Amino acid sequence: MASINKSRNDDLDISPQDVIADAFNRFGDNRISISFSGAEDVVLIEMAYQLVGNKVPAFSIDTGRLHPETYRYIDRVREHYGISIDMLSPEPNTLEQLVREKGLFSFYQDGHDECCSIRKIQPLKKKLLHLNAWITGQRRDQSATRTGLQQEQQDGVFSTPDHPITKFNPLASWTSADVWEYIQKNGVPYNPLHDHGFASIGCEPCTRSVSRFQHERHGRWWWEDEENKECGLHVQNVNPRPVRVLDKHTQPA
Ligand code: SF4
Predict the structure, then answer these.
(1) Is ligand 1 within 6 A of the CB of residue 245?
(2) Domain 14-248 carries which CATH code?
(3) What average pLDDT does the segment 182-204 reach?
């Protein structure tokens, strides 16, 4: 097995399958998990399934605001591969307080950081307390914030001095075309929203379809600056230090 090259140079990357195999070899199947968003990162599930069968460790973050199609699709993937997918939910008291004070669509007024922190970051933080590594479907071609993405990196958001966490991005050098070629060649089930112009899929209120002339991330948080289009899970792509809002809603571990 080739060791993972940490260079940002596409030419020096190893195959996604080799990244996943290396990650599983180093972290076993109970200290690492795949983050499945319910979109085209399903290729990670397929690749892992080819390696370890239905022992694929996977989770999805259930923000409570996903499209109905995405909920059904996540369950379809679960049945298709015969795998378990942990559904991570927000802490109810914190979420109720946000909604009570600001309503259900505060992100249109004051940005998506606070809502993403409660609905995504905190559930993931809780999950990662029990893991040493996670695997994401991030790619360099997805946005201006991801051009420097590495196949393996120290997680700069969720690591602590006592609990370092490794983040693997096996698809870093793949393009959207590579992903779709793989999905079609391998008969991988995909979210039907992709057939309706949704290139990048997140929460329903924060995702809209794009034309084929627009970049795929154009449909995410379209009311905000391109440079800030990260939800906090991967905020180290734009800021090497965790954002303030993360601290605000972080409960002591
Ligand atoms: S993507 Fe939108 S709805 Fe989903 S957690 Fe972030 S701000 Fe909230």
Answers:
(1) no
(2) 3.40.50.620
(3) 94
CA distance 166 to 159: 8
Instruction: Give me the chain's average pLDDT, please.
Output: 87
How many angstroms does the Cα of residue 126 sit away from the middle of ligand 1? Answer: 18
Q: What is the pLDDT of residue 163?
A: 96
User: 132-180 pLDDT, tens per residue?
Assistant: 999 999 999 887 778 889 999 999 999 999 999 999 999 999 999 999 9
Q: Ligand 1 centroid to 215 CA: how many Å?
A: 20
172, HSE (Cβ side, Cα atoms, 13 Å): 30
Q: How many residues does the chain have?
A: 253
Atom nearest to 107 CA in ligand 1: 7
Q: Where do the domains of the chain lie?
A: 14-248
Tokens 């795998």 found at: 83
- 102: Cα within 13 Å, side-chain hemisphere: 14
Catalytic one of 116, 203, 206, 231: 231
Residue 203 falls in the annotated catalytic set: no
